[in-house]
Amino acid sequence: MTMSMNMESPSIELRALDELWFQVAGTVCNLTCHHCFISCSPQNYSFEFLSYEEVEQALLDSVEHGVREYYFTGGEPFLNKDLRRMLIRSLEFGPVTVLTNGTVLKSEWLQELYEAEQRGRYSLEFRVSIDGPSPEINDPVRGTGTFAKAIDGVSLLCEAGFLPIITMTQTWDDSQSLQILDEFRTVLRQHGCDRPRLKILPRLKIGAEVDRTEGYQLTERITPEMMQDFDRDQLLCHHSRIVTSRGVCVCPILIESPDARMGDTLNESMGPFQMQHGACYTCYQYGAICSNSTLQTATSQATK
Amino acid sequence: MKLVLFGGLYSNYLALEAAISDATARGVDAMYCLGDLGAFGPHPDRVFPLLHDCDVACVQGNYDDSIGNELDDCQCGYTDPRDNYFAQISYDYTLKNTSDENKVWLRNLPKEIRLHVDGLKVLLCHGSPRKTNEFLWESTTSTGFLKRLCMEHDADVIVGTHSGIHWQRALPDGKRYVNVGVLGRPENDGQTSVWSTILRTGADADPNAAMCHTGNAVVPISVDFIPIEYDHLRLANEMRQQSLPDEFIDTVLNGWWTTCLEILPSRERRAGRY
Q: How many helices and strands (H and E) does chain B possess?
């Protein structure tokens, strides 16, 4: 459980629902990454799969809010057998991004999705999590053999016509980031990705990451003073909500915190949120790291 | 009414000259520019007399706010070190070569211009009505979101630029979002031309134009994107003489973006070469 400093934590309003997320595979994943902020694994059913009907209802409800784009995450979204149908339906409403570990993709699935994207006007983005340009950096965190499998997944995406974004959780010193980016671009080109798009994410010190390294210090919190003249759009909770099997939560990172649950429906979930968690501090430091539009290529570029 | 709408100029005074000539020949009633007068190109002061002489009313873009207030960077909203590196070269050059008088003028430009045209409420902004440097790309902007912007900002037609590629979308009730593209540089389509936009309403619209419902009225509206040819070889030469980056000159000569690529959504990126 995350330590909190209720009395001093500022509250933030939902400016508008720009992004709607779906925790479509719950906390179920074929991998057991040691840094996972919600401790996903093949056995973790604390959040369960969303059904096609639940996703469709939320899409229909989202229209009146003027949602700009949709995100699908898990766990591993492709473990949900209805995912492709959900994505194809979602592309009728707006642009869609899927966050995947890239290890379970199939060529025929991707071809079907590429054709669906081409039929409509909106983009289908893939974000593939690979935590470095080599098995030596990636596999100790994500599991033996996962680098090779994920790179194969990237190749399949590129063959299908997509330009995936690769996201790396930073487990190295800032000073190594540019070198790692260069190495990774070379590796990706060798695997059929001629226009590599790479982003580095900061570690979120909750979930499994607490056991791997450490949790947040009590001083790592947003204070009211820090919010003065701060661009609130840098915080995901200012413009997003996520639909889960346990209701609508404030953001994809904090779903396991009881206070992150905002309501049963979207309409019930429009209230303010008190930013009392260490992960809120990371979001503040690096910008809304979950949104495509504010993802930084290197964390050393963080503005705060 | 017939209006011409120019997107970011990026100091491309040769394209601006050509676009003004084209608009004049078409008999437009008024000319507007949606901001980002400087950046990318040479001799930033050269666009100002053209704008003043032809009564082109301007919105303040993020670049204009930065140059006008002598900020440290352009506030373009890039997220990649390479994109920011090139943006900073361009910004430092433009800041150094913009006169104090023009900086004051930029500083005082409005963030938006509201027009009432044949009964339509037309809102001219730079990025989006809610944020000057918000990128609105065709592939990543839902119709529901644009409808919400029209409602929240009390507009029948929203016109913006900033992202650098023109597109438009008809919305429910005939409302319209129009991104006019830019005059400053080609559109990442392999062509050397740049783009201007003509908005025609009421009696000036096409006979079969779509209808926009506003209040109790129904107003026809037509939007035409016009490719503008200009002396791009001369622009490239002047950029070379000013020691601007080869990457920028390459875009002027070949029509493909070489920088600002990481901000592109995948669909727009796939349409380009790099």
A: 9, 11
Identify the bridge partners of residue B115 per DSSP, sorted by sequence position. B122
Strands B217-228 and A247-249: unpaired
What do you get for the CA distance between the two ends of chain B, in Å? 40
Is the Cβ pair B262, A297 closer than 8 Å?
A: yes
H-run or E-run covering A12: strand A11-12
DSSP string, B140-185: G--HHHHHHHHHHTT-SEEEE-SSSS-EEEE-GGG-EEEE---SSS
- DSSP class of B56: E
- Domains in chain B, CATH or no CATH each: 2-270 (3.60.21.10)
Q: Collect all residues with Cβ–Cβ distance below 8 Å to A194 and sequence separation of at least 6.
A: A158
8-state DSSP, B7: -
Q: Which residue of B has its CA nearest to A93?
A: B142
Q: pLDDT digits over B166-181, tens only?
A: 999 999 989 999 999 9
**pLDDT, tens digit (0-9, with 9 covering 90-100), for B196-225:** 999 999 999 999 999 999 988 999 999 999
Report the chain A residue with the minimal C-alpha distance to residue B143: A94
Determine whether the interchain pair A66/B145 forms a contact, defined as Cβ–Cβ distance below 8 Å. Answer: yes
Give me the residue spans of the domains in chain A: 6-301
The strand pairing partners of B120, in sequence order, are B117
Size of interface A-B (CB pairs under 8 A): 82
Spans of chain A below 50 pLDDT: 1-5, 299-304
The CATH topology of domain A6-301 is TIM Barrel (3.20.20)
**Interface contact A293-B267, CB threshold 8 A:** no
